[in-house]
Amino acid sequence: MPTGILALNAGSSSIKLGLFEARDGRAVRRAKAVLDLKAQPLALRFEAEGASGTAEIGVADAKDLGAVLGGCLRVLEDRLGLAGLALAGHRVVHGGEGFTGPVRVTEEVFAGLETLVPLAPLHQPPALRLIEAMGALRPDIVQTASFDTAFHAGQADLVRRFALPRAMHDQGIKRYGFHGLSYQFIAGALRRDHPQLAAGRVVVAHLGSGASLCALQDGASVETTMGFSALDGVPMATRPGALDAGVLLHLLGPGGMRIEEVSDLLYRRSGLLGLSGTSGDTRELLASDDPAAREAIEIFTFRIAQAAAALAVTLGGLDAIVFTAGIGEHQPEIRARICRHLGWLGVRIAEEAGPGRIDAPDSAVAALVIPTDEEQVVADEALRVLSQG
Predict the structure, then answer these.
(1) Cα gap 173→175, rounded to integer Å
(2) Which helix (H) or strand (E) holds 44?
(3) For a designed S-S bond to 280, which of 127, 165, 177, 272 qualifies (C-beta 3.0 to 4.6 A apart)?
(4) 2 has pLDDT over 70
């Protein structure tokens, strides 16, 4: 078994890395690091027991992911040591119908993942490029893939089907759902720390630059707000969330837009950025006096509350709501606004800054803040894939 495991989480604008050690069949974290691909100069921020800091990776072009990964590995080697590194696990957003659990990356698997790029054009390519880069830099390392869609694969057709001809569902046009690695971590944290709540009806709100909600029943995903693509559901930093399909027909027809322009609009120029006209960052919008910024926050929190209430219908009630990811974990004003909209369901919060329970004594619904850790899930699954041969 390997002693060193590297978990890689490629986003559209950042790369998160987790360095783990295999101990007694478990992946135990040694360090975590993040690289902001939009910053200049490119520098890796890392935290480890006994060491933390920021180090430039010596690469100018953020688009050259091979060089970027090589620079990250050099920093980790210099600062933390990579002796014994034998396994690299990757977060891959879309697994389609064929990948419903973690797998070892082979040429055949990689080719299958490439066919899914059109379903996640913003997120799938960076993950695949990192897999290629790692293979070139360290061909001795076993690579695995963990999928955001896999956690939702057991959902019933009742929630996965679109009201389209049945043949299209059979061709793979269905609701897949995303952020599954985050929801998987939260489900495990609930089972460990709040077993009574974990057995009940829970809505988890993963709120970051990408945002979605998931209904958990006894720790399993029964419905989620994202569907066929990562554009669906609630508004996000630059993505619109649920949108009348007639809008797209209009833009592509009378609107005169090309499909590439519509794709750019939906992935990069909508959501909070489009609503406010200034920013997709909720921190900047909350600090702004601009009426458009205030309206963007109001729409964002209102739609999230609507989605939570809809998921409560699927669950047949609501025992707990959990906030996670960057916004969910660190922005109490956003949490408070969402919960005010859910007051009719009995949600009452006594806001606290840190993680843990934030519900008021008279709340009929438990409310929690639980930090997520997708890299931990990737490392655990990588170790499991290798141990199973």
Answers:
(1) 7
(2) strand 43-48
(3) 272
(4) no
Judge whether 117 and 146 are in contact, CB under 8 Å. Answer: no
| Amino acid occupying residue 234 | V
Residues constituting the chain: 389
How distant is the alpha carbon of residue 103 from its chain centre? 19
* pTM for the whole structure: 0.94
Check if the beta carbon of residue 283 is closer than 8 Å to that of residue 251: no
pLDDT at res. 352: 67
What confidence score (pLDDT) does residue 196 get? 96
Distance CA 380, CA 384 (A): 6
Catalogue the E-assigned strands of 68-185.
85-92, 103-104, 142-147
Q: Exposed, middle or buried by CB within 10 Å (0-12, 13-18, 19+), for 36? A: middle
Active site residue 148: yes
Contact call for residues 148 and 178 (beta carbons, < 8 A): yes
Q: Alpha-carbon distance 92 to 101, whole Å?
A: 11
Residue-level pLDDT at 14: 83
Rg (CA), the chain: 21
148, 232, 319, 373: the catalytic one is 148
Q: What is the pLDDT of residues 331-356, one digit of tens each?
A: 999 999 999 999 999 999 996 666 89
Provide the Cα torsion 327, 329, 330, 334; round to 10°: 50
Question: What phi and psi, each to the nearest 5 degrees, are found at residue 325?
Answer: 75, 180
Joined together, the tokens standing for residue 358 give 């934030």
Ordered DSSP codes for 158-220: HHH--SS-HHHHHTT-S-----HHHHHHHHHHHHHH-HHHHTSEEEEEEESSSEEEEEEETTE
- Cα 187 from chain centroid? 14
State the pLDDT confidence band at 83, using cuts at 50, 70 and 90: confident
pLDDT of residue 353: 60
Structure-block tokens of residue 387: 């141990």
What does the pLDDT read at residue 276?
98
pLDDT in tens, 44-63: 899 987 778 888 888 888 88
Place of tokens 């590194």: 85
Nearest by Cα to 236 from 307, 173, 182: 307
